[in-house]
Amino acid sequence: MLAKRIVPCLDIKDGRTVKGVNFVDLRDAGDPVELAEIYSKEGADELVFLDISATEQKRKTLADLVYRVAEKINIPFTVGGGISSVEDVDVLLQNGADKVSINSSAVKNPKLINDLVAKFGSQCIVVAIDAKQIEGEWIVHLVGGKVPTERKLFEWAKEVEERGAGEILFTSMDHDGTKDGFANEALAKLSQELNIPIIASGGAGKVVHFTDTFKEGKADAALAASVFHFKEIGIGDLKKELQEEGIPVRI
């Protein structure tokens, strides 16, 4: 079995790392370059950097900040926020990103997934999907969770896979920042219906939540932010506990 991945996430706004609950009430969580270096040294498997206000403010991801983060880490690095073209991806890869994450732009122009995969390869393209339950249906949202769409989670995820994306980063907006655990039922369904890796996001609060999302949610990776930023869970300790639970991780 492939090792499960632990992925800290840096949500960036105005050059600082921030964290909120259900995508709102953001608070400062520190300098992204310093945090990235710490996580790389602590044994994180990958790092995700999301410029959360880029799409809303209609600007490009902060390439210079991406470069400064990339200089300090030696683990795979995924960057997202405001990416809408082949040229955008080119700039980020040249500045040290290993993969890119697209979200709103993919929903608005699904062919973008095909274009990016054709140019850079599936392994480089992650599609992030933010969804929340509305009347029992998981509905995809855009622009940092502010704009609901007609898209349904499982149908969109399947299309994303068919268009060649290498991974899906699924964030449950209902669980985001609550620290009550991941959306394991939806994750398990995604895992069952798709053949590409699923990254779980939204809801990490305790070590058991990671254990549950790997066992029950069948996630391939678990992404978290505040529990790492505010030192509630150490990555090394987390991996040891996961290993004791029989979950394969890189120590």
UniProtKB/TrEMBL annotation:
CDD domains: HisF (cd04731). Signal peptide: none annotated. Its EC number is 4.3.2.10. It catalyses: 5-[(5-phospho-1-deoxy-D-ribulos-1-ylimino)methylamino]-1-(5-phospho-beta-D-ribosyl)imidazole-4-carboxamide + L-glutamine = D-erythro-1-(imidazol-4-yl)glycerol 3-phosphate + 5-amino-1-(5-phospho-beta-D-ribosyl)imidazole-4-carboxamide + L-glutamate + H(+). The active site is at D11, D130. It comes from the Bacteria. GO terms for molecular function: lyase activity. InterPro entries: Aldolase_TIM, His_biosynth, HisF, IGPS_HisA/HisF, RibuloseP-bd_barrel. It is found in: Cytoplasm. Pathway: Amino-acid biosynthesis; L-histidine biosynthesis; L-histidine from 5-phospho-alpha-D-ribose 1-diphosphate: step 5/9. Its main location: cytoplasm. It holds the Pfam family His_biosynth. Keywords: Amino-acid biosynthesis, Cytoplasm, Histidine biosynthesis, Lyase. It is an enzyme of class 4 (lyase). IGPS catalyzes the conversion of PRFAR and glutamine to IGP, AICAR and glutamate. The HisF subunit catalyzes the cyclization activity that produces IGP and AICAR from PRFAR using the ammonia provided by the HisH subunit. Belongs to the HisA/HisF family. Heterodimer of HisH and HisF. This is Imidazole glycerol phosphate synthase subunit HisF. It comes from Euzebyella saccharophila. The gene is hisF.
